[in-house]
Amino acid sequence: MKRFLYFIFLTLFFTVSCNTAKFSLRERRILKKEYEKNIMPLMFVSNKKDSVILYKRSNFFNADSTDRKLNKLIELMYYTCIDSLNPGVGIAAPQVGINKRIIWVQRFDKEKKPFEVYFNTEILYFSSSKSEGWEGCLSVPGYRGLVNRSDTVVLKYDTFDKKNYIDTINGFTAVIFQHEIDHLEGILYTDRISDKTKILTEEEYKSFNKGEKI
After folding, report:
1. Which residues span the domain enclosing 119?
2. What is the pLDDT of residues 131-162, one digit of tens each?
3. How confident is the model at residue 3, as a pLDDT?
């Protein structure tokens, strides 16, 4: 009987531990730090250690609104994304060193173009109709690339209300979602470009937009 009770205790202990230990030791260290203006350092593909994180598939997790570490990460990601010195239209957790399926996206398809956070996001459907568009990335600074993306996607995601949602997204906002969800899969936009002549430096991109020869 004692052995049985001990086994039950261990099972419960490890179950609780696994449910609450959402972040690795490395990730907890990142979240323990304080950052000036709440802006986290970004992971860059040019850095070997950073690239290991960027090319790793991110984990699904339980979106618990009482998790203080999770709430801190969400807030830090937001301020990092809207940094006036290096603003973006979206950001994914791997870009700040956390391999969890969390993204912020600016919803250009909504009134006032708000930033919204999404958990455990997946794309269920890609439209066959596609368009090419120029993309940049906070983790690939100094470059732009011409990427072919679906015009419409159907998403599945979680929120803090413990519900799972499905949504259809079109246009430029659909491109942002595809870009950020790629990050969760360990894919960078440059990986989507087979013709590397379609990847330009910022200076080349500016010249291209002015109609100058490159």
Report:
1. 24-209
2. 999 999 999 999 999 999 999 999 999 999 88
3. 53
pLDDT digits (tens, 9 = 90+) for 4-25: 444 444 444 443 333 433 899 9
Which residue among the candidates 36, 180, 202, 203 is catalytic per the annotation? 180
Domain presence at residue 3: no
The length of the chain in residues reads 214
Asked if residue 170 belongs to a domain, the reply is yes
Quick check: 104 pLDDT over 50?
A: yes
Q: Is the pLDDT of residue 214 over 80?
A: no
Q: Is residue 11 included in any domain, yes or no?
A: no
- Tell me the C-alpha to C-alpha distance, in Å, between residue 182 and each of 28, 90, 93, 101: 24, 12, 12, 11
Q: Is there a catalytic annotation at residue 180?
A: yes
